[in-house]
Amino acid sequence: MAAAAEMEKMSVEQVKAVKEQADMEVNILQDSLNNIRTATSRLEVASSALEDLSLRPKGKKLLVPLTASLYVPGTLDDADKVLVDVGTGYFIEKTTAEGKDYCDRKINLLRSNFDQLVEVAAKKKSIADEAAATLKAIHFIDQFTMRDKERGEEKIVLMGSPGEIVQREGVHRFKVGHELIRDRWSHDDNWHWQSATEQATTSKPWR
Amino acid sequence: MSSSTVIRELQRDFEAKSNDLSKLQKDIAKNHQVRKKYTIQLGENELVLKELDILNEDANVYKLIGPVLVKQDLAEANANVRKRIEYISAELKRLDGNLQDLEEKQNSKKEAIFKLQERIQSLQAGKAKA
């Protein structure tokens, strides 16, 4: 991913900023997704209400809600024509079938928007995760160097130009110039990156 | 002039510039808010226009004015919505220009502040040595 390649050149602060930004955007997108979901369910309710209405014969007695708890009796006069609120204060007279069609169209529109948003959100999320992983790797190296000072254990210096972040095993990255301690009780002479990151993530005891 | 008075002078300047910067940032946030509002309205109006466009000529259109629904001519409603979209688009464009202006100002302010900070620090370091 292009973003990941760029992140390797960034400083810790920059990566942090990227992560914060991405997290924020993910949250906003998540909110939007929720809004779309509620809107869709409202339209579905409207659609089923129309369906319900179209089944009732003319002249049928019913109770009309004036408030949430007050109902007055009425008779169904015309179930054929409905007024559709299309927004910004405009209402359009439609037949029941047209009204249902309107609801279905809106639902489809929302669904396609929803799918698009999910894609965008997933992309943002992967950027945020990428940044988090980078930060974790850098933090991990810092801890290693601290331990090193306390114990004076064997050190491994990463090869490469200083400040460069090398990538190993896809996710974990290390800033070159930092020093890594080689695990003393490791019998693996071919010690490699992967084992170091595993120690960090599985928090293997140090003694 | 002694170095401490210079530093004090610079710090005063620094504070003034920081205030300016936070004012700019507030303006930008406000701009974002207004723009968001207009963008939502634009989207809503476009949806309404799409609905109006697919209607038959003889369709009944009503407009909600206060608590009453008033019957309206389809052509009139159409023209109304179009005009609104035009207005909102123009407003959005204006806001965009405004925002760009503000952001440029913000960046130059940030740079100025950064330079000031550096100068203050180097002066303070020099003083500490002396």
From TrEMBL, chain A:
Domain of life: Eukaryota
Cleavable signal peptide: none
Pfam family of the protein (one): Prefoldin
Gene Ontology biological process terms in this record: protein folding; response to cold; RNA polymerase I assembly; RNA polymerase II core complex assembly; RNA polymerase III assembly
The species this protein was found in: Castanea mollissima
GO molecular function: unfolded protein binding
GO cellular component labels: cytoplasm; prefoldin complex
Gene3D superfamilies the UniProt entry points to: 1.10.287.370
Family as reported in the entry's similarity comment: Belongs to the prefoldin subunit alpha family.
Name of the molecule in the record: Prefoldin subunit 5
TrEMBL record, chain B:
Family: Belongs to the prefoldin subunit beta family.
GO molecular function: protein-folding chaperone binding; unfolded protein binding
Residue ranges that the Swiss-Prot or TrEMBL entry lists as coiled coil: 85-119
Any one of the GO CC terms: cytoplasm
Top-level taxon in the UniProt lineage: Eukaryota
Protein name: Prefoldin subunit 6
Organism encoding this protein: Castanea mollissima (Chinese chestnut)
UniProt keyword DNA-binding present: no
